[in-house]
Specification:
alpha/beta; Nucleotidyltransferase, domain 5; Endonuclease III, domain 1; six-stranded mixed sheet; 15 helices; 36% helix; 20% strand; nucleic acid binding; RNA-DNA hybrid ribonuclease activity; RNaseH_sf; RNaseH_domain
Amino acid sequence: MSLSKLHEDGASNHTFGRAGIILESPTGVVYEQSIKFKFPVSNNQAEYETLLGRLVLAKEVEATRIEVCSDSQVVTSQIKGTYQTRDSLLQKCLEKVKRISEQFEEVTVQHVPRERNARADLLSKLASTKPGTGNRSLIQGLIKEPAVTLHITKEDPSWMNPITDFLRIGKLPGDEKVAKALRREVARYAIIQGQLFKKGLSQPLLKCLHPSQTGYVLREVHEGFCDHHIGGKALARNLIRDSYYWPSMMKDSKEFVKKYVKCQENANFHKAPTTELSLLISSRPFSHWGVDLLGPFPVGPGQVKYLIVAIDYYTKWIEAELLASISSSNFQKFMWRQIVTRFGIPEVVISDNGTQFTDKKFGEFLAGLGIKQKFSSVEQPQTNGQVEAANKVILLGLKKRLDQKRGHGRTSSLQSYGPIAQPSNRPPRRPLFD
């Protein structure tokens, strides 16, 4: 049997599900089947159960190429990969569909409107069918067990159990003092769709995590994209910002950072002797900028191997950009795009005596904007201390993020120091002037 056309439709209610299948061969033989599921299923699960059963049937009749027609846009889009499958049970169903589909030469999935799938829809409702022309066969079947099941393991008791027990069934501990404290505590919690959340005053609902989930969340937030391996307290604050909560999150965050190998190997231990504090007076935010160049580094994507860094002396705001080459034009573009157009025209720019900064065109560019250019000491360019400190912070972040392939992770590391989205839709620098 070369090409077979398969029409299927599934439906469900609270107690059971039903499905209708039409399998049509190239020779005109039509197999019609009305199926009842003897177990509760969702509409999408009914569609998958129907499809799995019919693929098995098509294999039994030695079909090699299958065209599947379904009126479920969710299921057809998940099989094609245009929709993401979030439900755990549907993920296993999708994996099984793909595994069985590999046994055919070709399997195509097509979404059709319900009116074009009326026959299968009628079969799913167990309606009476009219005899058609040609060789037709109508079969009614009963499926007692689902094709795919989830193995659910019971979680160990945790700090959430007393709270959820009280919110669901009003259960209280036997100790009167503990029960009184629990009544006060549960006022801060709510159960939404089976998940426990903690109410916050200045933040949205926080998802409460079981101890078995905290390790994964800590690792993802600490190592995640655009993060720069922050310390324990900052990690705990980021967890709250990401809407997670458990009582010992501050302690667990500190312990996680202490045990993280890369953070310990590249820790910033202060070894310099104490000196008299030297202040650089800036008249306003973003009026005095320090600029420096780092590199060359191992070549990364786009042939970039240099890093230009600028820092505002008043707010300590860092701007950085990767460059493929050192040239006056690249420095002018950086100053215009990253500094002038975003923070206004500064009063002073401080740099070392590198040729890229002492270049005549770069000096004319700054003078044309009315920016005064100052240079650090020739004997000791490190006197441009603020930008040197920023360089140290960025280099430390790069060491923690770079993998063995060299060059990966530098762009995301720089993005962790850049502007972030604000709920108020205001520029990140705006609160400095409020």
